[in-house]
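re: the backbone from monday

yeah here it is again, tokenized this time
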């Protein structure tokens, strides 16, 4: 059994996928990072995965636009829904790079969920939409994003990519995201 998910390892969708595999009682399922909702759909259509997991909506950020787009493109069967509380953290490459933040990159939903925090603490820093929170953390760790950039991701994604934690629980309010377990009809 293969379950593809929007995001990278340690993304919020990765943890939702682990919970879904417990819910549908599939021990030892292969969890496949597809990074984007579009890639989840492609993998489902090519039968590379049996199920897909995507973030659908958040109580602060609203409907996830990339998921909304794939739901328009094909007939999807929703197998299960799951709500999870989401916490965001701000990470930089190293402790010394904390003083030189000129950009913050993350998935657009994470940026929306931390809007007030960002306006208050990083008003003059350029915000950049990335394709996934954990992917951005991985890219910063690998040097593919400049060291004057901070990323917003969950704590495990930042720590597992050896990044320096600047601040945690930076979401503006209780943040709850609904995830969908899907397959093609």
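seq for it, each position gets an aa:
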């Amino acid at each position: 059994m293969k379950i593809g998910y929007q995001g990278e390892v340690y993304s919020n969708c990765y943890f939702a996928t682990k919970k879904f595999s417990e819910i549908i009682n599939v021990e030892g399922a292969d969890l496949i990072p597809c990074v984007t909702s579009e890639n989840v759909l492609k993998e489902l259509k090519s039968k590379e995965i049996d199920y897909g997991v995507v973030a659908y909506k958040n109580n602060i950020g609203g409907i996830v636009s990339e998921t909304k787009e794939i739901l328009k493109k094909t007939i999807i069967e929703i197998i299960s829904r799951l709500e999870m509380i989401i916490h965001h953290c701000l990470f930089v490459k190293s402790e010394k790079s904390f003083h030189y933040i000129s950009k913050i990159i993350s998935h657009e939903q994470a940026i929306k969920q931390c809007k007030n925090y960002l306006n208050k603490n990083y008003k003059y820093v350029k915000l950049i939409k990335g394709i996934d929170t954990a992917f951005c953390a991985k890219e910063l760790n690998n040097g593919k994003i400049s060291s004057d950039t901070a990323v917003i991701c969950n704590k495990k994604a930042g720590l597992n990519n050896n990044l320096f934690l600047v601040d945690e629980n930076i979401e503006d309010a209780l943040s709850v995201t609904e995830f969908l377990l899907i397959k093609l009809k």
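Residues 47 and 127 are 36 Å apart (CA to CA). The longest strand covers residues 76-85.
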